[in-house]
């Protein structure tokens, strides 16, 4: 299994870490990552992690089993991902210049990592909070939640729940509903590029 895929590592000053959804793999979000970061005045290294478990279909990967949900596996999955993240070199590109982005199940994992590491920003797309998830720290990364209005895989109410938890605890967060389903479309890409340019490019 390819643990991670890496693009543009030479001379990069910023980093984008990608966490794919259930049944995808490390290559799934790379084209999207390139679209998000191309033609920005700061150069981004793109790191895409592959989930450790084989999807039950035999194709793609999963961070932990879904259908049925095995929530008891989440803590171990989060610790394993954090360990793999720690193996990246942060001397040239520190966490404060690192954006984390996850889609669907990867977005749920991103919400977990946001509690444990202080990233420059975290994007959770079409995601959901794990049972018992709370933003327990005052120093949590700024979180940008995005969800398709017509998502039939993960209902948009899941991102609303994450936003409500973050807002209740006074954490910096933003919730954006776009015209679409369980997908990454041109509307969402344009929205995310604007967030990156306005908030994370000097």
What labels describe this entry?
single chain, 202 residues, alpha/beta, seven-stranded mixed sheet, two-stranded antiparallel ribbon, 29% helix
**Spatial extent as radius of gyration:** 16 Å
Taken in chain order, the helices and strands follow as: EEHEEEHEHEEHEH
Q: How many H/I helical runs?
A: 5
Find the structural class using helix and strand composition: alpha/beta
Write up what this structure looks like.
This protein is α/β, with parallel strands linked by helices. It contains 5 helices and 9 strands, in the order ββαβββαβαββαβα. It has a 7-stranded mixed β-sheet with strand order 1-3-2-6-7-8-9, with helices on both faces. A two-stranded antiparallel ribbon has the order 4-5. Strand 4 (53-54) and strand 5 (61-62) form a beta hairpin. It starts with a strand and ends with a helix.
Compact overview of the structure:
With 202 residues, the chain is α/β, with parallel strands linked by helices. Helix content is 29%, strand content 21%. Strand 6, helix 3 and strand 7 form a beta-alpha-beta unit.
SSE layout and pairings?
Layout: E1 4-7, E2 14-19, H1 30-37, E3 44-49, E4 53-54, E5 61-62, H2 74-86, E6 98-103, H3 105-116, E7 121-125, E8 143-148, H4 157-168, E9 173-178, H5 186-199
Parallel strand pairs: 2-3, 2-6, 6-7, 7-8, 8-9
Antiparallel strand pairs: 1-3, 4-5
Helix pairs in contact: 1-5, 2-3
């Amino acid at each position: 299994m390819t643990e991670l895929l890496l693009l543009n590592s030479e001379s990069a000053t910023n980093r984008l870490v990608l966490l794919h959804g259930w049944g995808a793999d490390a290559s799934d979000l790379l084209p999207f990552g390139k679209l998000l970061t191309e033609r920005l005045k700061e150069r981004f290294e793109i790191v895409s992690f592959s989930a450790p478990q084989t999807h039950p279909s035999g194709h793609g990967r999963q961070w932990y089993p879904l259908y049925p949900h095995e929530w008891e596996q989440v803590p171990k999955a989060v610790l394993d991902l954090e360990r793999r993240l720690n193996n990246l070199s942060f001397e040239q590109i520190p966490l404060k210049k690192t954006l984390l982005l996850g889609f669907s199940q990867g977005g749920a994992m991103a919400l977990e990592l946001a509690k444990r590491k202080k990233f420059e920003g975290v994007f959770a797309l079409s995601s959901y909070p794990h049972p018992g998830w709370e933003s327990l720290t005052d120093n949590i990364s700024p979180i940008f939640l995005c969800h398709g209005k017509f998502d039939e895989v993960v209902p948009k109410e899941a991102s609303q729940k994450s936003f409500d938890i973050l807002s209740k605890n006074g954490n910096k967060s933003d919730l954006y509903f776009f015209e679409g389903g369980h997908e990454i479309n041109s509307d969402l890409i344009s929205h995310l590029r604007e967030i990156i340019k306005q908030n994370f490019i000097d």
